[in-house]
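User: I'm preparing a small set of examples for a lab meeting where we compare how different chains pack in three dimensions. I only have the primary sequence for this one, and I'd like the structure in C-alpha cell form so I can line it up with the others. Please keep the answer compact; I'll paste it straight into my notes.
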Amino acid sequence: MNAVEIEEAVSVLASEPFDAGEFPFAFLAAFGNKETTIKRLRTSSANASDVAGGVLQKSNIHIAACGEGAVGETLVALRNSSKTASNKAKFILATDGVTFEAEDLTSGETVACAYPEFPDHFGFFLPLAGITTVKQIRESSFDIRATGRLNKLYVELLKDNPEWATAARRPDMNHFMARLIFCFFAEDTDIFNGEGLFTATINQMSDRDSSNTHEVISALFRAMNTNIEKRAAEKLPRWADVFPYVNGGLFSGSTEVPTFSKIARSYLLHIGGLNWKMINPDIFGSMIQAVADDEERGALGMHYTSVPNILKVLNPLFLDDLRERLAEAGDNARKLLNLRNRMSRIRVFDPACGSGNFLVIAYKQLRDIEAEINKRRGEPDRRTEIPLTNFRGIELRDFPAEVARLALIIAEYQCDVLYRGQKEALAEFLPLDAQNWIVCGNALRLDWLSICPPTGTGVKHHADDLFHTPLAQAQIDFENEGGETYICGNPPYLGSKWQSDEQKEDLKAIFSARTPAWKSLDYVSGWFMKAADYGLKSKSSSAFVSTNSICQGQQVPILWPLVFETGHQISFAHTSFKWTNLASHNAGVIVAIVAISREAPSPRRLFSVADDGSVIERQVSNINAYLVAGANRTINVERSPIGNLSPMLFGNMPRDGGHFILSADERTQLIHSYPELARFIRPYLGSEQMIQGKPRWCVWIEAKDSEFAAAHPYLRTLLSRVREFRSDSAAASTRDFASKPYRFVQIAGTAKRYTLAVAKVSSERRPYLPVHLFDRETIVSDLLFALYDAPLWNMSIVASRLHLVWIATVCGKLKTDFRYSNTLGWNTFPVPALTEKNKADLTRCAEDILLAREAHFPSTIADLYDPDTMPADLRAAHERNDEVLERIYIGRRFRNDTERLEKLFDLYTRMTAVDEPTMRRGRGARR
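Assistant: Understood. Below is the C-alpha cell output for the 927-residue chain.
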C-alpha cells in the first residue's frame, strides 16, 4: 500500500463504530498487513501481548483497546510491558474509542487526540508500513488526504467522460484539475469572498442528481475570467457574479467542464470540505502530479522529495552564503539593504522542475531571509522584492508544469500572509499575473539562455492562455537584471540500457560532436553538460541530484573531462546517500549531489554520511570527478598492474551451446556409464557457484586428447553438437573455433598449483569482496576473474576493505551490486612497494581468513559474509588483514573510507604521473 491508500483506509476505520475487540486488527490491516498476518495474530501463540485487550506485532507495534477512561494507564502498561521490549516494538497505542494516544518508542514522540481525529496523525505510523517518514508528513496529513480525494474524483470523471482521457483531451482534463485546486485553496483563504464559497455555491446551485454540475462550475470559471467592468455584458448568473476576477490565464480559453455523476459530485463536495489552508505546496505539488499520470497513479504519493533532501542541494549552492552575509550584516542598515538588493536579482532555474519542489523551497527560503532583513531594518510590512519570475523552470509534461506555477503562486500568497498579514496579502493577490515563467518542453532540446537569460528578455508567454504556451510568443523581462543564476534540480537519471530512442537522440544532440563514447552515459549527464555550456555565457552555479554512477566507473572519463574543459570545477558535492520516498518498503535509489561552477570557492565543501547517519562536512582544496578530495585525474584502463601485483585474467568461456556443462547428477550418470571419462570432468565455477556453493562441472579436453575424444562414442557426439552450434554462430570469432570443437573458445589460463578467483558481481551488502582459493583442477568461468598460481598475499589485498572501496568507486556498480573489473579495478589499484616481510605478513593474513572459513564448513561465502551473521572469528581475521595492509600505507588504520580513498587517489596519481593532461580520455573500452 502507498501512503494515500493507507490514509484512506485509516479514515474509513475512524468513521466506523468503534469495536474494541476488532480495532487492533483493523488498525494493522489499514497499514497494509495481509489477511494471513492478521489471522495469525488472532491466535494466542502469535500474539505475545501481556496487556489486557492487547495485540503485539513483533518489531512493530503493541496495541491495546481498553475501557472508557483507561487510555492513560493502558499506555503506561504497554510502555512498561516486558513483552514490548523483548519483541522490539517501535510503537505503543491505546484507545477507548473516545481518546487515542500513541508513542514512538524510538524517538519519544507522542500523539494524543480525540478518536475521530487520529487519521490526522496517520503519518506518525507510516513506518509500520515500511515507509520512511519525514517531519512534514508526520505533522500534517492534509496533502496526502487531498491527493487521495482528488485522485478518486479524477478517476471517476474519466470513467464518465472517456473522451477526456484521450491524448487530445487529457491536457484539458489536467487544466480543469489545476483550476479546481486553485478554487479550493482560494475559498479557504479569503481570496474568494466568504469561506467555502466555491464548494457552497456548487452544493446549492447544482442539482442533487448532478445533471447540471458541469454547467454551474463552467459559469464560475467564466466569471473568474471576466473583468468586473465587462460582467454585465457577459450576463453571468447572479450567484456567479460574487466571485472575483482571477485572470492570470488560469481560467482563460475554454471553460468547458466534464460532466459529473452523483458519485463525482459527492467527491467534489468532500474535497471542498477539507481545510485547504493547510496545503503545503512543496509536498502537494509532487503528489498531485501523479493523479494525472496513468503510469504514476499506482504509485500515488510516492514521489515526494523531502525538504531536507532539497536543502542538501540549495543550502551549499547559495542559501548558506546568504545566511552568512545576513549574520555579518547584523543590524547595519546599509549592509542589509545591499543584501536585499542582491537577493532580488537572484534567479533560481530548475530545468527538470516537475511540480516545482525545488523552486518552491528556494522561494520560501529566500522570503524567510528577506523577512528577517525587513525586520532588522524596521520595515516588517514591506512588500517583497523577490518576484516569482526569478524562479524559472522547464518541465516535459504539461500538468506538472501547471502545478509548478500554481504551487509558486500559493507559496507567494502564504509567505505574504506569514510575513505581512492577511489583509496585505489579499490586497495584492488578485488579479494573477499572466506571465508564464515555467516552460513546458524538452530541457535537453531547448536553449536555456532563452528561458533564463543573463540579461534582457527571455521566457515566452501567451497573452490569452497561461498554460498553453508556444515558444514563439512574446518575452518576459526580469524585473531585476544582472544577478546570479543558480541552476538546480533532480533530473531523470536513466542508465543507457533504460533510455528510449528519443532520449538517446537527446544525448546524441549534446554529446556526439564531443565524444564517440556518449552512448554509455546516463541520461542525467545531459543536464550537467547543458549547465556547463550555460555557464560559459552566464554567471551561474549548478547543482543536481544524480545517480552516483556518473561519478564511478566508465562514465567518469567520458563525461567529466568534457565538463572540466569548459572551465567548470566541482564546487561542492554530497557523496552517495539513499534518496528515499514514500514507497512502502522502498530501497531508495543511491544518489550523489554534484555542483559545478567556473568560480568554484576555495576551500570546497565535501559532504558524506557517517555510519550513524549524520552528515559530515569537510573543507577540501579540490574535489575530483569521483567525489574524492584530490586532483582532477581519471582512472584509466590499464592492461597490466601499475604496481607489483600479479596479473589478473579473465575466466574461461566455452561458447558451446551449453553442451560442455554438467550438473552434479549429469556428472554422476556420465561417470557411471563411461568411467574412463572421469579424467575429463572438472569442477566448473562461476560467480554463483563460488558464492552460493552450488556445484557444477564441465568436460575439459586438451589438444593432446583431441584424437581420443573424436573416437569416443559419447565425446564424438558431444563434439559434433558443439561444432554445429559454433558453425551456426553469428560471431566470426565463434565460427573460427568450429574446427576445434574439443576445447573452450576462450582459455585465459589454467593453474599448475591453485587459482585465486574473484567474482565479477557481488552484493553491496557484503563487507568484503568474494575471493576464494581453488585447486588446479577447477576451471574458472568467464563470470570470474582469476589469478593463476599467484602468491597468496594477492588474496589479502582483494579481501581488504581498502580494495573494496576502490572497486566501488572506480568500477561502478551493476544496479546496487559491486561490479569488478580487472583492467579498471585491479590493474589500477595502487600498492606501495612491498618488502618480503610485508608479503609474508599479508600471506599469513590470507591463510587466517581461509582457515576461519574452513572452521565453518560447509557454510558458503554467501553464508559467511552475510553482515548480520558473519562469524566472529572470520570478522576478526579480516580486521587483522585490514590492519596489516593499512599500516603498510600510512603506519596505522585509516579512520574511514574517505581517508582510504584520498590516500589511494594520491598514490595512484604519483604512480601514474606522466607528461600528458591529467584528465585524460579513457585509453580503451573497459573490459
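A couple of notes for your slides: The longest strand covers residues 569-579. Residues 307-329 form the longest helix (23 residues).

User: Perfect, thanks.
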